[in-house]
Specification:
Elements (H helix, E strand, L loop, with lengths): L1 H7 L9 E4 L11 E4 L6 E7 L4 E7 L7 E4 L4 E9 L17 E8 L7 E6 L4 E6 L3 E6 L7 E4 L4 E9 L13 H15 L2
Antiparallel strand pairs: 1-2, 3-4, 3-6, 5-6, 5-10, 7-8, 9-10, 9-12, 11-12
Length: about 200
């Protein structure tokens, strides 16, 4: 999240949008201030992640106004954003439900032993997914996460192949990787090693 928000906040002219800014440090704490947005950053953003339980605020572009959810059975990542386009409008953080209701969708998930376990999907996770990078995974997700992608972190490059389907227990095949899932995987990775 630090990288996402830090890259969104840049020096700008005085007629640009002003937003609240709060970028978490390594302990997850931040001091709220304000930022003048770059010309291309025409949205104020507030975001919450459920896995690492972090909040952040800053400037961004409309394409950054996305929500994401990935439920792999053994772990669930959620990213919620709110966006607005008036000065200092990103006051509140979006809420993430700690106990979302089941929605009736069923998908397979992997637990380290088997990938044929049944997972009851929750909230708006209405697609089953199978993903493949270094490891195979199955679970519930959002249709926005049903794309392939890659991420280059300098010394490591991750390629995600993903397949998605919308009927119960349909995620039996493995294809590939998607950018939203990569973002959520990175959040899971840092959350796992931040303790």
């Amino acid at each position: 999240i630090d990288v996402i928000i830090t890259n969104l906040v840049i020096c700008t002219p005085s007629d640009a949008l002003n937003c609240y800014q709060c970028i978490p440090d390594s302990s997850g704490n931040c001091t709220e201030g304000t930022a003048t947005c770059a010309t291309q950053s025409n949205r104020c953003i507030a975001l919450t992640t459920a896995l690492s339980e972090e909040n952040a605020k800053g400037c961004g572009v409309p394409e950054g106004c996305v929500d994401g959810s990935l439920n792999l059975g053994t772990a669930r990542s959620v990213l919620k954003t709110t966006c607005c386009s008036t000065n200092l409008c990103n006051t509140n953080y979006p809420a993430v439900s700690s106990n979302p209701p089941p929605n009736g969708k069923k998908c397979y998930f992997c637990d380290g032993q088997s990938c044929n376990n049944t997972l009851i999907c929750v909230d708006d996770e209405n697609y089953c997914s199978s993903k493949l990078n270094e490891e195979k995974a199955r679970g519930c997700g959002l249709p926005e996460g049903c794309v392939d992608g890659s991420l280059n972190l300098g010394t490591a490059r991750t390629v995600l192949k993903t397949t998605c389907c919308s009927t119960n227990l349909c995620n039996t095949n493995y294809p590939g990787k998607n950018p939203l899932f990569i973002c959520l995987e990175i959040l899971q990775y840092f959350a796992a090693f931040s303790y």
